[in-house]
Amino acid sequence: MSFTTSLTVLLPEIIMAIGAMVLLLAGAAGGEKTATPISWAAIGVMVLAELAVAMGTGGPAFGGAFMADNFARYAKLLILISAALSVLLTEEFFANTKQSRFELPVLILLATLGMMLMVSANSFLALYMGLELQSLALYVLAAFNRDHLRSTEAGLKYFVLGALSSGMLLYGISMIYGFTGSVDFYIVRDVIAHGGVSIGLIFGLVFLISGLAFKVSAVPFHMWTPDVYEGAPTPVTAYFATAAKVAALCLFLRAIVIPFPHAIEQWRQIIIFISVLSMALGAFAALGQKNIKRLMAYSSIGHMGYALLGLAAGTALGARGILIYLAIYVMTNIGVFACIQAMKRQGKPVENISDLAGLARTNPKLGLVFSMLFLSLAGLPPLAGFFAKFYIFLAAIQANLIWPAVLGVLASTVGLVYYLKLVKVMYFDEPAEPFDSEIGIGSELIIILSGAFALLFIFTASPVITIADAAAKALLP
């Protein structure tokens, strides 16, 4: 494989890297007045990268360290769409806070580059390189409001816990290398197929899963999530909740099912354990929340638990369920955070659930979309969220994971309580002071798109399912 061929395969990542460096230099030269054009230019770079992903060359790159297959393409498109929509939210955030910082879209570009490398990783070293590129940018994004106490605290917690998880991940990789003699996914798979699963390899696998579980905020590695969601600016929280979760879960999927299909009985038990715990904590911990961003943090923990149930199935059907789940999860969550960004009075953001009181009467359109998105997250038919959970539970049942699927349905029923509580506050409580009527163009566009997606997915599900099926079969033929 020639160096030129490798560059062609990784053309989307090269576009992102060059775009990020050019925009960083432009921002450094032009100052804060360049924040708006740099935001739009960052979206343009992502659109170019999306075109390169959709039309690009598939196959391995750099000696097989990276792989551009249908699975990687699907994940990259979801990541880029999430990142572009998150940058679109930054314009209104800057207007609300009376500050403009060109670093925000540049950091999102760099983090997105790391995510794209992660989901194409075909060896543990490539995985770690992409993961750290993503993490370094995310640490700064979490503490982006440097004059805000909660944001600084969130960034520090995320950094410390992230460093700990990276150490666990690296230790697990070193043990896997020690017992298999390689960091290449397919070589590791062949060694295990011929030599069996040793105790040392199981220990390495446990550390690897622990490090990856932190990235998807699965229990018991979820501690950072509520603080980061609450403390980070809303566009950054939206980015954490969508692009970062897609990248981490797709990385989890690739790093487990390709190298360790012959150790499925060992890792399946761990995945089921953290999946059930995540579903339960996400359901019950959200019940007492008063801040809507913290509630969404616990909601995301629960949703990662449902998605991990598809991984526990260890089948192409489970992988397809995860990919369908992620597409629906991204579009629903980005809409919810656009609605949260519209929650402002006299130009100042408000985040308490009580602030939603009577929203259906003071702003019927926003109240309707907000309610629809919450009910979609709850999994009520015929909204999109129902199909997300349906395909996950279907895969779990076909893999004979009956009890985890039953516990997932029960957790989903408990989760329905707090989503219905939000709808009740908006429709039946006495109206609070109305929110500002002016909503940014970006937020309004996202709210309309996500609302239409949640409502009309039942009519357009076939293309998403077909593409997700092709992506899953690239991973698990």
Q: Could you explain how this protein is built, in words?
A:
This protein is mainly alpha-helical and 477 residues long. The strands form two sheets. The chain has a two-stranded antiparallel sheet with strand order 1-2. A two-stranded antiparallel ribbon has the order 3-4. Helix 7 packs antiparallel against helix 9 and helix 13 runs antiparallel to helix 18. The protein has helices at 3-9, 11-30, 35-55, 70-97, 103-120, 124-142, 149-180, 185-195, 199-215, 224-231, 234-257, 264-285, 292-313, 316-341, 359-362, 364-378, 384-398, 402-428, 441-475, and strands at residues 59-61, 66-68, 344-345, 348-349. Helices cover 78% and strands 2% of the residues. It has 19 helices and four strands.
Summarize the structure.
The chain has 19 helices and four strands. With 477 residues, it is mainly alpha-helical.
Structural class: mainly alpha
The radius of gyration is 21 Å
Q: What is the rounded distance between the termini? A: 24 Å
Q: Any low-confidence stretches, pLDDT <50, length ≥5?
A: none
Assign an overall shape. Answer: globular
The biggest beta sheet reads: 2 strands, antiparallel
Proportion in β-strands:
under 5%
Going across the biggest sheet, name each strand in turn: 1-2
DSSP strand count: 4
Number of helices: 19
Helix content range of the residues, please?
A: over 70%
- One letter per element, helices H and strands E, the order comes to HHHEEHHHHHHHHHHHEEHHHHH
Mean pLDDT: 87
